[in-house]
Amino acid sequence: MMMSEEATDPPPRVLLISAGANHSVALLSGGVVCSWGRGEDGQLGHGDTDDRLLPTKVSALEGQDIVSITCGADHTVAHSVSGNAVYSWGWGDFGRLGHGDPSDLLIPHPIRALQGLKVKQIACGDSHCLALTNNGDLLSWGRNQNGQLGLGTENDSLVPQQVQKFQGVAIKMVAAGAEHSAAISEDGVLYAWGWGRYGNLGLGDRNDRSIPERVTVDGSKMIMVACGWRHTICVSSGGAVYTSGWSKYGQLGHGDFEDCLVPCRIQALNKMFISQVSGGWRHTMALTSNGLLFGWGWNKFGQVGVGHNFDCSCPMRVNFPQEQRVSEVACGWRHTIAVTQSGNVYSWGRGANGQLGHGQTIDRNFPMIIEALSFEGSFGQHMEESSNVCPSSGKVPLSVSQKYAVVPDENGKRKAIKGGMEERVEVDEVEANVPQFTHSSQ
């Protein structure tokens, strides 16, 4: 008697990864989204503000057919292709969530202004977002104090608005840094706008731009762009890498610590064909077409992944067990995540909030496998699940005074320390009821 063969589902795998300031997200086959790391602003999407040390499924997105995920510094965005919907959650200040107000959201909510649009790509910066549609239109929203929205003003936008500069120009790819943005057109032209005081716009000066301007890159056609916090990385059709902007920690990869006001080619990678780049707060990663991963820049927490904690001004190869090759890489502010071709996920760098996904709060200066997401680990078997949350709940309005303790810097300029953040974040506008010089109780 013949035995009928039972159909078997393909094994689960990680499709996409993204990293924020102190949190991480992954999209798994089957449309499953999981997140881990710092949750103080709701950026994990689990309905609370708790940190997660291990990958945890975002229950509110179950069954939503998610096809892409993107981290901002303290917020997250996901795109559902079946419903043509874009969801956002996390820290809401300056309108970065696109819902028309600055409230925090602890679970994913659809952005009404983008409902029904066929979205091709979303890029998140520190406090602003960009959405590229299939027909090449670009929309932006969030903070705009340096013109990073490309709208010709410096006014924040609480909802997505179309970038008029690109009407009639088909855009292929977009990227967002802390306070600047970049785009590549279908015909290979690089554009940049926003904060430019380190030369990160690549326009030859240190001026801000509120409208996108064309950047000349060695006469070459560009096919890819990424932004670090205050630097820009682009790749030509020939696989060459160019960087511009801030280089205090060697994040431009030119062997020195000098800023570049125009895109300069990284000579150390001349013989490589680069297929992906990613920018962190002060470090950079580049992936070659044959799966080799290189990193450089700030390395205080081991985020470059080369086994030590010294800054690297030249590209250094990141090694993986059994010489595994890499298929995808994502930089957070102080940590890095990579997916290998053999289906394993590794992370390294800062681990204080559990953003490495290892179940600990330990920094790592070399790639360490995330067991819950890897073929050679316990893929999905021990993954935690967030409790189901009512979609209409999870909205938390907080004033600036509740989030910040405003303190003077060494020059008397007002700054603010947010939550448990290690670095100080400049605050250009604070509510009038905030005391001028109150000190954090931390």
TrEMBL record:
One of its GO terms (molecular function) is ubiquitin protein ligase activity. This is Ultraviolet-B receptor uvr8. Signal peptide: none annotated. SUPFAM superfamilies: RCC1/BLIP-II. The gene is UVR8_1. It comes from the Eukaryota. Its EC number is 2.3.2.26. RCC repeats lie at residues 31-82, 84-135, 136-187, 188-238, 239-290, 291-342, 343-411. PANTHER family: CHROMOSOME CONDENSATION REGULATOR RCC1 REPEAT PROTEIN, REGULATOR OF CHROMOSOME CONDENSATION. Residues 13-234 form the RCC1-like domain. Keywords: Acyltransferase, Receptor, Repeat, Transferase.
